[in-house]
Amino acid sequence: MDSRSVLGILLLLILGTVSEIGPVRAQNIELGLEIGIGSASLSYDAGPPYTELIGIPEWDTRPRLCYSILAFVQVPISKSLSLLSGLRLSQVGDKASHSNSTYRREKRQQYLSVPIRIRYNLFDSPIYVSAGPEFGYLIRAVSTWEAPSPYPPYPQTDKKFNGFLKRINVVLGAGIGASYKIFGRRMYAQVYHNEGVTGNIRDIEGQRFGIRRIGGYNWRTRETTLNIGYLFGN
To answer: 0.90 cut: is pTM over it?
Structure first.
């Protein structure tokens, strides 16, 4: 089964869940838009045994700026509990360099994802917590790098990097936020963190991009965003 089929099945499951809530709940379904900005990084499995094996220094990694755009449907389950799902466009990645080397690389991975989140309002207050899985499909990946002589001293773009990564990325997320009204319009602000649970690299043999699947060397996505959301309607 390919990755498009997996995402299609997930969307059908979401629609089926919403339909089971019934017409009474369906009339309270809310549509919304969320925009966020934050910090993204990649969690590497590499360590000294790997780096000593192929004779390169360890990675020094730094986070990069990331963004998130989510169009969603929110379905009430009870007074304090609701289900949220939709489509989210996000870009993650990091900046990395080798210790004792002028080698530098930047990675950018863009995903179209289907989050499934449960929201729970605390003590009938505007404050809520939210958590759930997210299933992403890789739509674009770019890697740029600068290497010491004899390589060109200007940034290079790795056009084959997209094919080096798995298409499906699964993450688990959790956050806390608060809803409020501005001029009668319902909005919310939240901090949300997503942690990848699946590795991004395909299982291949041989060295590619200075990376190899030896000793579990892989990476997972990680992002923390500050989001502002708007709910359409009253």
So the answer is: no
Beta strands per DSSP E along 147-218? 156-158, 168-182, 185-196
Question: Which residue numbers in the chain have pLDDT < 70?
Answer: 1-27, 46-59, 98-102, 147-156, 158-159, 203-217, 233-234
Helices (H) and strands (E) in the chain, counts: 3, 10
Of 62, 70, 79, 18, the C-alpha closest to 190 is 70
First to last CA, the chain: 42
Split into its structural domains, the chain has a count of 1
Scanning the structure block, which residue is given the tokens 């798995």? 166
Domain holding 182, by residue range, is 3-231
- In this predicted model, what pLDDT tens digit does every residue of 155-198 receive, in sequence order? 667 667 777 889 999 999 999 999 998 888 889 999 999 999 98
Query: How far is Cα 232 from Cα 73, in angstroms, rounded to an integer?
Result: 10
What are 209's two structure tokens?
Answer: 């991009």
Q: Output the six-digit token pair for 124.
A: 């009938």
Which residues face 189 on adjacent strands? 178, 228
- Here the CATH number for the domain that contains residue 162 is 2.40.160.20
**Amino acid occupying residue 160:** K
CA Rg value for the chain: 21
Query: Side chain identity at 60, as an amino acid letter?
Result: D
User: Which residues, in sequence order, are bridge partners of residue 85?
Assistant: 73, 116
Cα–Cα distance measured from residue 211 to residue 75, given in angstroms and rounded to the nearest whole number: 43
Helices marked H in the chain — which ranges? 3-20, 23-26, 48-54
207 close to 218: Cβ distance less than 8 angstroms:
no
